[in-house]
Structure formats: C-alpha cells, structure tokens
Amino acid sequence: MLSNHLNFPSRPDPYATAHAQAALIGERLSQEKLVANAVERAATRARNPFEWGGASLGKGHTGVALLQLALARHAEAAERVADAAIATGGVSSEEWLARAQAQLHSAVGSTHTHPLTNTSVLLGSSGLALAVEDFQQTDDRYATSASRLWQQVAEQVRDHPWPVRESGYAATDYDVVYGAAGVLVALLSAPEALSGHRDAVDILVSYLLKVVGPSDGEDLACRIPPELFPLPEYREQYPFGYYNTGLSHGIPGVLSALSAAYRAGYDGPGVRSALRRLADRLLEWSTPDRLGPDWPAGVPLTEAGTPNPVESVPTRTAWCYGTPGVVVALLQAGAALADADLRSTAITAHRAAMARVRAVPESVSSPTICHGVAGLLCVAAFVEEQTGDAAARDDVRWLTERLLTHCDSAQPLIVRDEESTGNFVDDPSFLTGAAGVGLSLLSARGGRQTWWNGLMLHG
Question: Which pTM value belongs to this model?
Fold first, then answer.
C-alpha cells in the first residue's frame, strides 16, 4: 500500500508544499519493495536501457541517500525554529538521517562486489566521493571514508589514459556527466590538502585545454567526428561531424568546469584564453528568435570541417541541452573573466528561455533534472543567486508550482520521468528520477545552493 501519511502544511505556500512533496518522495524511496517493484515495471516499459542499483550517483542508492540527508537537515531546521513552512512531514530529523545512512551504507557496500572503476560523476567514484563528503559535514565519522574515496579518484585520474585525438573527441572524453569536466568540478569540491589532489586537478585542467585546442587554432579541437558519434542516427543530422553545445555533454560544460578551476586559482598558461575562446564560440553560435538568444543541441560541420551554425536546428529548453545550460556556462565564464557583457547576455538568454517555456508549458513535460522542470528550477535558482535578477526570482516560484503539478501521490514514486517522448516510467534516480526531483523541491525556497546543485551547475 502506498504511504500518504505525512503531514502536509495547509497554508497555500508553494515552497511549503514543495518541501512536503519532497518528504513524500523520500518516504516512498525508503520502501525497498515498492522501489524494486517500480523499477521492475519501468525496465519493461523503458525504450532505453534502464538501470538501477549499486553505488553510483546517477543510477544507484547514492542519490536517494542525498535526498534523505537533505530531508534530515530540513527537518532539523524545522524542529529548531518550529517553522511549519520548512517542515518535512511527520518524520524526525534523526529518522531521516538513519534512513540516509542506510542508503549510503548500501551504496558503499555494493562497491565490494561491483567496484566503481571509472572516475565519472554520474556512474563513477567522484559522484560517490561527493556524497560521502557531504555526509561527513554532518558526521565526522565519515571523514576517513571521504578521504579514502577522494584519494581513489585522484589515483584514477592519474592512471587514466585520457585520449588525445587528432580527428576530434567523443563527448564522453570531456563532458560533465561521464568525462573530465565533471570530475574536475567534483575534485574542486574536495579538500585541497588531500594527497594527490593538486596533481589530479592539474591533469584534468591540462586535458581540457587540449580538448579546447591551441589558441592559434582556427576552431575548437572538441569537434565530434562521425566515427565517435554516441548514436548512429546522428549521421543524418551531422554527416560531417558536429560540435556539441549542450551543458551535459558539450562545450558549455567544459567552459563551466574551466571557469570554476580558474576561479579556484588554477590559472596557469592558456586557461584564461581558453575561457575566452569557448565563450566567444558560444556567442557566435547562438540562433536567436524573436524572444532573444537561443542555442541548438549541436552545430554541424561542413564537408570542409568548419562549423555551420546556420544549419543548426532548435532543441529542447532544458538543463542538459538548450539555452538554460548555456546560460549557466556564460554566467560562470562571466564571473571568471569579470566580463559584465557575458553576465548580461546570460540574463537576457535566461529570460528568453523562460518566456518560451511560459508560452508553451507543456513543451517541458518531464519533471526531472536532466531534461525537465526540476532542471529549469535549478537553473532559475542559480541565476537568481548569481545575479539577484527579480525575473529569475519569479521564475523560481512559477517553476516550483509547475513542478508540483507533476507530483501525484497515486504514483509509486510520486513523479515519473518521460524517458522518451510520451513514455513515462518510475525512476528512483538522481539525474533522471525522483531523488533529483525531491532535492530540487527542497532547494526551491532560495538561498545558497547545495553542493549537488553546484555540481550540476558547475562550481
């Protein structure tokens, strides 16, 4: 039987309702059998391979642990000040923390039989290290485990054969989700005193500079040739290759990661010029409409190998692909380069993206972080935090209300991911599922973003 026993605030405050829905998601994700049954059904319905379990942030118990840890902190704050607006249901902070620890221990325990052999944020050791680091902020008994994981990440970075390719790169070589950019941002969150930390960051920064290419090059080196396409159907749209312009797998993620490194003091030769080149290319490749700046998912190459933005086609408005992700990158670069024009362009682009979504709300039909409303909510909160833009503050409220329309207590995990057009599945995970939606709902009230939000928004 589905549990609906949590005590929801009665006043019409979307943020209080958001916190209550996050608590209900956390409650459902605590029910092992319910989650297992939902995942089993999802696996039969999903049109793309469906995975769940283990230690990864992207597809394992780590994401659930983070949601329940956040609920413990919110419950503790509510208990301290007796504020119903930040209450997280009828579960105490101690109980939420116990549930979070059980999820994390399950995740870490699974590494004994299924070790995380790569460094990626979504499926590898750096995502787990970030989670354990977050736990040790609450309980210093996790400090030894966090240090051990960060050392493992640093060693994996050192030992990994980061490919340098003449014809171009695969997105997974350098991207945020699987590649060097995400690992770099993760390591920037680790204590600098850890053994091997500086060397690992230097390796990743140097590698991303190679991905950008030499400053005297005509174009960026990170073009994706047909032989390295992630899916064969890309050949129809990009017969001669392309530049990926999505935050999750493309140039904006590299720009954001290098911007974060530059601001953290990794300002060696070539970093600043790489930031300038990446930002300038993104500005050149904008395909504006009547509402303002817009960006495609990718810029095709001509037969001669030069970028041809005129042939770009519009894409979704999301964190993973489209203008919101580029907004994040331009804001990060603007801060790193102290460039007010980049900041202004980012704000204008964000307003244009939100105007498109408000005009056709159903155009964003999934609730998740990756390609749904939760991701837009994270971006709007980031824009508000970075700029103080009043319009972004209004967007945060509107998107919170919009995300709440996706919450349905009749569904096993409260929310369902649209994993492909028109196909909704129950997904417990962080980036494409209920755990990430719950975390987004908890952060909707404003204030400084949590580390996981900083990771997905890069620094």
Answer: 0.94
